[in-house]
Amino acid sequence: MAQLFETRAKQAFLIDADTGTVLFSKNPDEKIPPASLAKLMTMEVVFNAIKSGRLSMSDAFYVSEHAWRTGGAVSGTSTMFAEIKSSVPLEALIQGVIVQSANDGCIIIAEGMAGSEENFARLMTERAHKIGLTDSVFVNSSGLPAEGQHVTMRDLVTLATHLWREYPEFYKYYAQESFTWNKILQRNRNPLLRMDIGADGLKTGFTEASGYAIVGSVNRNGRRLFMAMSGLETESERAEEARKMLDWGVRAFERMDIFDEGETIGNVSVFGGAKGDLAVRAKGPVAIFRPITNADSLRARIVYQGPIPAPVEEGQRIGTLKVWIGDTLSQETPLYAAESIAVGALPDRALDAVGELLTGWMRRYRS
Question: How confident is the model at residue 362 (pLDDT cuts 50, 70, 90)?
Answer without folding.
Answer: very low
